Amino acid sequence: MRLAVLPVVAVLMVSVTRTGDAQSWSAGLSLATVRLQRPAVGADTSVALRGTVLGLGGVIGFGPMRFDIRYAQGSASPAGGGSSTDIVDGEILLWVTPVPWVAAGIGPHARAFVEGGGTARWLLWELRLRSGTNLVGQTVGVYIEGWRVLGASVPAVDPFDHAWGMEGGLSVAFGQSPLGRLPFSARLSYRVEQQVVGGGVRRETQDQLGIGIGVGRR
User: Fold this and answer.
1) Among residues 109, 111, 112, which one has the least CA distance to residue 92?
2) What's the DSSP call for residue 19?
3) Residues 6 or more apart from 87 whose CB is under 8 A from it?
4) Is this model's pTM higher than 0.85 or not?
């Protein structure tokens, strides 16, 4: 996939945020540095990679429910040099907030690595929990999110074992944005996740440090 896909996703985000009946919505951009430790395509060895990914995302909410879609794309290269690997990552999650301080989400998380003429595709069905609180009025907030994979389709010949992930971050709301009266916000986040196959023999680990900006109505 090419970065030309990003404008298509942007159009979808605009379409989502224009839904008139939505009680809340947001859309934003993100940039993250990524580190990967993963099995090499077509080999029993692992490879360490570093790179950056650019992402788009949108959230639309109706009462205690919200729909979250995210897409990211970039590339990473071995620390000692070598051919780069294209990275494509996407999530579609349905969240429910039974009580104000916690939300539960479920949905698919797809990832693809393109390297050496081959493509490794992962499809993970994740169950997530998320909680957050405000530190300074409605301006500064923090959140933490964790998840477990309920089932997966993996590229390895070994059976899928288990997978998990965690993310935490800090958000700041700035009031009006350069686009007018829409609230403008910024976010700093850290994310780590791991997938294990073959009884722990083969592991794929990723961590990301990202920044993001967004506009929306809550």
Assistant:
1) 109
2) -
3) 34, 36, 51, 53, 72, 73, 74, 75, 76, 111, 112, 113
4) no
Overall residue count recorded for the chain in this entry? 218
Core vs surface per residue 99-130: b (16+ CB within 10 A) or e:
eeeebebebebebbbbbeeeebebebebebeb
Rounded to whole angstroms, the Cα distance separating 58 from 150 reads: 24
Domains of the chain, start order: 5-217 (2.40.128.100)
Percent of the chain that is helix, strand, coil (3-state, to 5): 5, 75, 20
Mean pLDDT taken over the chain = 84
What pLDDT does residue 59 have?
Answer: 94
Asked if pLDDT for residue 177 goes beyond 60, the answer is no
Rounded Cα–Cα distance for residues 106 and 188 (Å)? 23
Q: Is the pLDDT of residue 106 over 70?
A: yes
Residue 5 has pLDDT above 60, yes or no: no
Q: Is 40 helix (H, G, I), strand (E, B) or coil?
A: coil
Contact 106, 130 (CB under 8 A): no
Structure tokens at 41: 């395509």
Structure tokens of 123? 């499809």
> 90 — phi, psi (to 5°)?
-145, 145
Least confident range of 4-13, 27-36, 101-110: 4-13
